[in-house]
Amino acid sequence: MVPRLDLTVTTQDRSEPAAATARIRAYGVQLDGTTGAFNAITDVAGVEVGYHSVIAGDGPLVAGAGPVRTGVTVVLPLGRDRVGRSVPAGWFSLNGNGEMTGTAWLDEVGALSLPVAITNTHAVGPVHRGVIDWAVARDPRLAQGWLLPVVAETWDGYLNDIFGDHVGPAQVAAALDSATGGPLAEGSVGGGAGMNCYGFKAGTGTASREVTVGSRSYTVGVLMQANFGSRSELVVTGHPIGRRLLQDNPMEDPGWLAPPGAGSCITIVATDAPLLPGQCKALARRVPLGLARTGTTGSHFSGDLFLAFSTANAGALDSTIGDAFAESGGATATRDDTAAPAGGPDAVRRLEFLAWGAMDPLYTGVVQAVEEAVLNALAASRTMVGRDGHRSPGFPADRLPDLLGQPGAPGPA
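and the corresponding structure tokens:
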């Protein structure tokens, strides 16, 4: 039997103040668009995020025992109180060298009704089980139907004992129980604990934009698990600074198994604008344009998968056994009437949605927020040493004024 480490397990949520690490704007970087109050996906009303990180041990890798640098991140579109209620959703794959479960059902009905989880590549199965167990324990009525969670992954094997059983249902439950709105921690937290981007330590990043469509204002927020890009590609606000930072780049040592640029990127987009599922998919398709602003060309060895949802029209796309009984004139046995979506006994429902021709401000918000989320993930992280002494250097954010040709900018608050 492989010995297990006495793990130091930390649950990290927004109760750890975001100010504990600086964000990219703290270094004088100027970015386009108007942010929400928290500049986070949680600026979309109702969205909650939770983290659980597992960081323990040092030294040589003992498969199954550690060292461990991993975790899980969860996004609840309507918060904990409305798990099981659907929201319109769509997804997009820039490159399929990765995993995002539940996408066949998303394509079929365009609806998302459970928390989204992001973890490491080999923890997808246990995390999937964990989301189901937590949801049913919280609302036993969900056990009357079928549950198809969305669980996505990026690979943290450079720093982490990725073959070890370190993220499972208990860690998922801890992340879900900690989920909340408001400001969010970034960098080496949750599923991003062991992730890297552009040859630097990175992980979790978030940002938001306020947009105007006609006389109405909407919010677009993104949360990203950043684990992609080669050092030489990195661009910040149009400046190709990566080629000036090629020193101290151990992850791109020829002796390491992965080529430069390998990794993955998972991005979740949320908005309160009323959208059809196809319009959500259109938002997800804009994520690569924001990534490209930071320099990546999309490595074959990077699984880049994106999901977008709208918190409007909640429940209108619910797919329940009770609808089938109602259609045939039989008895219904689903959720209580107070939670039922709009519609009558003929099972007809209605959606409010933006005109397709009015979508451009939302597209702009996605691209701008994605660019900033990448930079926030880099700015928030610090140097980390993991398995076998593998070292991921922190991003030298304090050098940005010089690299960008700006006058001196303030450091972290």
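(Above: one complete record from the training split.) The chain is about 20% helix and 25% strand.
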